[in-house]
Specification:
This protein is α+β, with helices and mostly antiparallel strands. 35% of the residues lie in helices and 28% in strands. The chain has two domains: 133 residues, Fructose-1,6-Bisphosphatase, Chain A, domain 1 (2-Layer Sandwich); 113 residues, D-Maltodextrin-Binding Protein, domain 2, CATH 3.40.190.80. The strands form three sheets. It has a seven-stranded mixed β-sheet, sandwiched between helices. Strands 11-10-12-14-13 form a five-stranded mixed β-sheet, with helices on both faces. The chain has a two-stranded antiparallel sheet with strand order 1-2. The protein binds D-MYO-inositol-1-phosphate and calcium ion (2 copies). D-MYO-inositol-1-phosphate (IPD) binds next to strand 4, helix 3 and strand 12. The site of one calcium ion (CA) has 6 residues, from strand 4.
Length: 261
Amino acid sequence: MLTPFDVAQCAAQEAGEILRRFYHEGAAIRSKGVADLVTDADITAERRIAEIIRKEFPDHSILGEEENAGSVDAEHLWVVDPLDGTTNFAHHIPHFAVSIAYLHHGRPQVGVIWNPIRDDLYVARRGHGATHNGKAIHVGAQTKMSESLIGIGFYYDRGAMMEATLAAIGDCFRQQIHGVRRFGTASLDLAHVASGYYGAYFEYQLSPWDYAAGMLLVEEAGGTVTTCHGTPLPLHKSSILASNGVLHAEILPIVSKHANY
Ligand code: IPD
Ligand code: CA
Ligand code: CA
């Protein structure tokens, strides 16, 4: 019998093939809201992931960004972003990923993040560490913001939340950080914290499918993930601050000062 770990990897692989095909052959792009895009690739990939999970675990719930509205209270829950980084995908930037997490009683047990264009596979299993293409990864050794790159995300807001993010970025720069990066795929931003590239990453609004797998990856790589107010992440829309753990105390007051989220 296959385990959730096997199924998550198999589903990510198959969904990745679908994304790769649409990426090279072209996909119809539609708008879900201001600056929020969806393509045939998102929908087709989520359908295939759900099919693979349901075949092996028919009684498990699935919460997916596009079509599956599983309950976050389910004992066995899969949290799926079939295409994280749709804006990159739509503009033909090869920085996007499939993100799949399996949760037991609301706690992530397995996380898989797969960029099918760059062949980057990140995997985490609770208690078993985190890997990138089979090699163990660990958060960075930065001890101060002034030694760090900081990852940033902007939600699909063009008002107060965007202004708050810009204000927080200004305060980060005033700590003499090495720079900020906005690559546009939250799951891979979390993978960058887990790999030590970023000392920390924050965003004022994400959904569970954006962070469920990446959160486990960061924690298994030795880091810390909370809301921008330092509280545990809930399984609904939330701000997020991920760091190597050491930097959390220094950056938390900066990101919380600007966050009403
Ligand atoms: C988005 C990306 C982006 C983040 C947004 C997310 P999507 O996910 O992860 O980096 O800044 O907040 O919504 O819409 O491409 O799946
Ligand atoms: Ca996403
Ligand atoms: Ca998505």
